[in-house]
């Protein structure tokens, strides 16, 4: 097995040899352990907390900034600790006695300065690393993003593909955050795993469920080039399955994993499923140049008004993307499988939307 170290990742080029590591060693997270989740009031962290409490029998400790938002976590039986990943002291207190840390907190808002985004996504990740080292945790699972590949327009992007910046604060900060985590692994032996989700939809997803539903309801969602470009969906529970395996598998230490449900899906089908839930037979479409000019207009208007643009060029580029992410490594090394396919994922998403008053 050859292992190649670079500035941002550990790339393993012999998956079969990793797979041969005995499953008997996969005991990193066990019943009775205390697990810390940063970003537990968010979409991914919140669902992870629910699943850990209900299925894994561990004590979940949630680091939260806003105690009011933490009420659902308290109802679950989670231990809630007020703090912030930008406050190292609060992180160190929260990490004491924990065996595993899931780092899901991040600045994902499209509005924010370089300093604001880096303070959370990069410096905050360094604080998580420092707290994990001080607490002597058995595993740090860092939730990153497939955005770290820099929107390369090729199919089957896998973990041997070098990460790169894309010129926007979110992507570039996630690249730097991964470098922080991997540096701690390489130089201090911190047992880390990096999870790179694709486009996460499902129960409460703000970007790929709630926002499209709201835009379709208002009539503002338009397909770019007829919606022929590709979405790379992963259902939230499939991702949570992967995150739990990242905490349990000995072979995962020092590795990065893509998490995508498989083949990409045209946006016309993905958004079309939401349109059908709302009784809309079809969605309007515009050519890419028109959408790009509209995004520039909204960005300028947003700056003049001091508000985030309702449409921007980053979103337009996402909706024009023609690439995909391989999940072979997660299948081979972790034994992960996306157990909920797109049709079932959308069925469960629709049921959740109706139960929560998002659909008539």
Explain how this protein is built:
The chain has helices spanning 15-19, 43-56, 71-76, 88-95, 114-121, 123-135, 169-188, 206-218, 236-248, 267-277, 288-305, 313-319, 328-334, 342-355, and strands at residues 3-5, 10-12, 34-38, 59-64, 79-82, 100-103, 139-143, 192-197, 199-201, 223-224, 230-231, 233-235, 255-259, 265-266, 285-286. Helix 4 runs parallel beside helix 6, helix 5 runs parallel beside helix 7 and helix 6 runs parallel beside helix 7. Helix 2 links the parallel strand 3 (34-38) and strand 4. Mean pLDDT is 91; it is low at 1-24. It is built from 14 helices and 15 strands. It has a domain at 3-201 and 233-264 and 324-340: NAD(P)-binding Rossmann-like Domain (Rossmann fold). The chain is an alpha/beta fold.
Look at the structure and give the CATH class of the domain at 3-201 and 233-264 and 324-340. Alpha Beta
Strand order of the largest sheet: 5-4-3-6-7-8-13
Reported by name, the CATH topology of the domain at 3-201 and 233-264 and 324-340 is Rossmann fold
The coarse silhouette is globular
Order of helices and strands: EEHEHEHEHEHHEHEEHEEEHEEHEHHHH
Biggest sheet character: 7 strands, parallel
Could you list some keywords that capture this structure?
about 350 residues, alpha/beta, Rossmann fold, seven-stranded parallel β-sheet, two-stranded antiparallel sheet, disordered N terminus
Outline the secondary-structure elements.
Elements: E1 3-5, E2 10-12, H1 15-19, E3 34-38, H2 43-56, E4 59-64, H3 71-76, E5 79-82, H4 88-95, E6 100-103, H5 114-121, H6 123-135, E7 139-143, H7 169-188, E8 192-197, E9 199-201, H8 206-218, E10 223-224, E11 230-231, E12 233-235, H9 236-248, E13 255-259, E14 265-266, H10 267-277, E15 285-286, H11 288-305, H12 313-319, H13 328-334, H14 342-355
Parallel strand pairs: 3-4, 3-6, 4-5, 6-7, 7-8, 8-13, 9-12, 10-15
Antiparallel strand pairs: 1-2, 11-14
